[in-house]
Design a protein that fits this description.
- With 374 residues, the chain is of the alpha/beta class.
- Helices cover 46% and strands 18% of the residues.
- Helix 4 runs parallel beside helix 6.
- It contains 17 helices and 13 strands.
- Helix 13 links the parallel strand 11 and strand 12.
- It folds into 2 domains: 185 residues, Glycogen Phosphorylase B (Rossmann fold); 182 residues, Glycogen Phosphorylase B (Rossmann fold, 3-Layer(aba) Sandwich), CATH 3.40.50.
- The strands form 2 sheets. The chain has a 7-stranded parallel sheet with strand order 3-2-1-4-5-6-7, sandwiched between helices.
Amino acid sequence: MKKALLIASVQSHIAQFHRPLIKVLKEKGYIIDVAARNNLDEKNGLKIENADHIFDVPFHRSPIKKQNRGAYARLKKIIDEGDYELISCNTPVASVLTRLAARDARKKGTRLFYMAHGFHFYNGAPLRNWILYYPIEKVSAHLADTIITITDVDYEFAKKKFSANVVYMHGAGADQNKFLSVTPEKNESFRHMMDYDQHFVILCTGELNSNKNQSTLIKAMPLVLQKHPETLLLMAGNGPKHDDLQKLIDSMNLNDQAILINYHPDIEIYTNACDLVVSVSFREGLPMNIVEGMICRKPVLVSHNRGHDQLVDDQVNGMFAKADDPQDIAEKIVYLIEHPEVREKLADAGRETAKLYQMDHIEKEIRKIYFGEE
């Protein structure tokens, strides 16, 4: 009986980013357990599919929080009693605790994979990130059999600095079938039902937090609306900045033009219905919302960071705007509204880019990395 344990700080991470790995493990006959804090009530029906047992482990994303002591104790007990052949861990704090808790298991033959979805230390990162996260990652690197990176920048850095087997994979895998399942007829019906027919719809998907920087995008909207009053901004997600963003929208009298639509498990409907996908975040690992937009043949407008830079070639398969400059963001949006032929060119090129980051391609890379299959 082969068993695998998947670990992340929150269960939504497993539900959103581990479907390809779960699928491959199931095909190979593994029993799959999950250990993560249960946050699914916040995600409007999001579920972990095909897991055999789910442990609620109270991880906190901050490494200095005391509750991580209890999380470590619970996790170690799960690992020690689980007799796992394979462990795959994700997210910084949960992964460090996993590598410490799995030391005895590795001596007995358990293989441990750590997937870094984007190191918190990077060129331009705050000094505190380097002081806090880099030493922890460097010291614990050797406690994994393999470190999986998903951007070229992280791969090159880890290869040079960490004592571990470091490999590269094209992200966690976007579900192309899900996003391509929305037919033109269904899309047209949805747009009509939502009264989007007369609008140019912009979609920004991501947790509502300071890093995702939705506030600057909101501040760009009046400048866009001066030239194109038909523009509509939809922001999908939930998070700690929800109330602040709503207050900003209220203060700018944008309630009919900038709308928080909460978290949507069926985001493929909105992605297909929009005219432009925008993300002006400060930091990204490998942004699935951009890949998903590309799958749906939507032009993308993004800020410079290592994740966006990994995916987007300016003026080829997307465009860049300055994350901290509402004027620049607005000018780029207006340009794209007024040049549909450019949108078409970018969307076509983006669709080709996305093929490397789809689930079917990622499943092949998982088989190679985890099981040595060519």
